[in-house]
Specification:
alpha+beta; seven-stranded antiparallel beta sheet
Length: 135
């Protein structure tokens, strides 16, 4: 993993990893480095375990952007159950949420959850969404 702060069990498969753990609010980071390694990288991380998928992206450009994290169940982004959606511009929060969500998947916390099956795009207006209300 490129981000050493992530703690995933061996059951998770990394499908894409461009998540370097760059803090967009850290003013000491070279702006060109931020731009090429975060701000233009809409798709940062895609990991899966069975039919659970965690997808992380960066949306919008530069400092007014945000990380957007989705946990969904099903193998089709356009026909799945959205279990978690988190948006933040804080690296520490998004890293903590990835670790927490992956641990809850490992522990079976989502196995009894039933949500509407829809496209992730249908939930784009939701700022924060959590079926388990983990805020």
């Amino acid at each position: 993993m490129k981000n050493k702060l992530l703690k995933l069990s061996e059951d998770w498969t990394v499908n894409k990893d461009e998540f370097y753990g760059i803090d967009p609010m850290d003013k000491s980071v070279d702006p060109d480095f931020l731009f090429s390694n975060l701000f233009v990288q809409e798709d940062l991380l895609s990991i899966s375990k069975a039919d659970y998928h965690i997808d992380l992206g960066w949306y919008r450009e530069e400092e007014d952007g945000r990380f957007c994290l989705y946990l969904y169940r099903g193998n089709d982004w356009h026909n799945c159950e959205l279990l978690e959606k988190v948006q933040t511009n804080r690296l520490s929060e998004i890293t903590e949420r990835i670790n927490s969500i992956s641990e809850r998947v490992d522990n079976g916390s989502y196995s009894a959850s039933k949500n509407q099956i829809a496209s992730i795009d249908n939930f784009s207006d939701i700022e924060q969404f959590s079926i388990l209300n983990h805020q």
